[in-house]
Inverse folding.
């Protein structure tokens, strides 16, 4: 699809870095391709001249292929410096960085950056080029044919959720959120296996940010890029990260794990403080109903005798009974109303107003529980068949 023509790195979307001296390329031919695109940092240090202490001090980290790894930490802890060392906008003082199994200092910058898309908060679109031309920056540098570029641009617009009508506009005519989408489309244009994102959403308002985050999650399910996302927002890291790396000042790695692991067992007080309030609720947002053993509940068939309902209520310690017709849940009846009924189905019944599905988070299930008269969340499958129910106790057990 793309020519092998050599391109100048300085004109690429990653911006100019003419100040850094060229590093001689070795004989190693980088074989770029998604199969090799993982990132490994070993004891990476960056000490800026004149600085009293290193911005990043002996950081070791492995970024899984096809995963989104979030680097999260307070301002000034070395997140951006780390990211820029991966695509050689900044050269490390010591240590090694591999991308796709090859040390980055052994790769010419333009070769390296062909494998790495880069998205920044300031977006940095070229103001005098149309949106389409901005997106096509790298394909044009690579000498793609015009028709190929046009088709690719249209495809990318669709993938990032950008209305095709916007392609002929100039960036200034776009909202912040739309500009950010253009930035992502541009970074993805030549289909690099790696995407580096530095606080991409911190300049947009919370509602737009949430949309952009959802779009990225959806896009990632489709594309499976190796993504390193820098953010100071721990909730963004938890929402988007397959793994999160919590960094402290000096690029000190305090903890590295999946969001669920980190939330369940913060390594230390720094991590605990950084995760913030409502750690339990944040964990619950990562667990689905399908992962929790359900209770059967005080359920009886509509044609059962009231005595059976009494037994079910006694067993569960409640004063109501759920009424089923096969696996269809008809509603619930108050224990007090069963007395005169020949069958449970004859007693007055109240329908359950809210349900959860196996894919619902247990955080939402908790909301259901506290809002329901019966203090349970009723679980139905996608065909509305009764699967079971959850109480606060079930949720608490799931969190242990
Ligand atoms: N070009 C530079 N020259 C000197 N110091 C720098 C430079 N870039 C960053 N720093 C310093 O390195 C530290 C880490 O910065 P940075 O990586 O930008 O942090 P973060 O992205 O986590 O906010 C900070 O103390 C910052 O002031
Ligand atoms: Mg930064």
């Amino acid at each position: 699809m793309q020519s092998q023509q050599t391109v100048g790195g300085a004109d690429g979307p990653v911006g100019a870095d003419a100040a850094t001296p060229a590093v001689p390329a070795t004989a190693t031919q980088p074989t770029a391709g998604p199969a090799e695109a993982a990132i490994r940092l070993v004891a990476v240090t960056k000490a800026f001249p004149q600085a009293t202490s290193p911005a990043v001090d002996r950081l070791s980290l492995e970024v899984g292929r096809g995963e989104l790894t979030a680097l999260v930490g307070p301002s000034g802890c070395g997140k951006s410096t780390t990211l820029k060392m991966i695509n050689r906008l900044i050269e490390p003082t010591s240590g090694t960085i591999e991308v796709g199994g090859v040390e980055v200092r052994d790769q010419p910058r333009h070769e390296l950056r062909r494998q790495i898309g880069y998205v920044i908060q300031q977006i940095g679109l070229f103001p005098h080029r149309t949106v389409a031309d901005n997106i096509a920056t790298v394909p044009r540098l690579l000498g793609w044919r015009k028709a190929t570029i046009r088709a690719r641009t249209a495809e990318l617009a669709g993938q990032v959720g950008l209305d095709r009508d916007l392609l002929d506009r100039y960036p200034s005519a776009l909202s912040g959120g739309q500009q950010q989408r253009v930035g992502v489309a541009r970074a993805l244009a030549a289909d690099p296996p790696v995407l580096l994102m530095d606080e991409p959403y911190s300049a947009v308002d919370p509602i737009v940010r949430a949309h952009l985050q959802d779009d990225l999650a959806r896009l990632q399910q489709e594309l499976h890029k190796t993504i390193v996302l820098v953010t100071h927002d721990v909730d963004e890291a938890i929402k988007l990260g397959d793994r999160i790396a919590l960094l402290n000042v000096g690029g000190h790695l305090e903890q590295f794990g999946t969001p669920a692991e980190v939330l369940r067992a913060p390594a230390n007080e720094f991590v605990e403080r950084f995760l913030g309030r409502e750690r339990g609720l944040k964990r619950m947002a990562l667990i689905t109903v399908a992962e929790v053993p359900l209770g059967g509940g005080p359920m009886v068939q509509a044609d059962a005798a009231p005595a059976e309902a009494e037994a079910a209520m006694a067993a569960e310690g409640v004063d109501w009974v759920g009424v089923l017709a096969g696996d269809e849940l008809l509603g619930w009846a108050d224990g007090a109303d069963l007395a005169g009924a020949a069958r449970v189905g004859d007693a007055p019944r109240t329908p359950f107003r809210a349900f959860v599905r196996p894919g619902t988070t247990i955080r939402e299930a908790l909301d259901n529980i506290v809002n329901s008269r019966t203090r349970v969340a009723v679980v139905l499958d996608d065909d509305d068949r009764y699967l079971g129910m959850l109480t606060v106790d079930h949720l608490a057990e799931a969190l242990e």
Observations:
- Residues 9-284 form a domain with the Rossmann fold fold (CATH 3.40.50.300).
- Residues 1-37 have pLDDT under 50 and may be disordered.
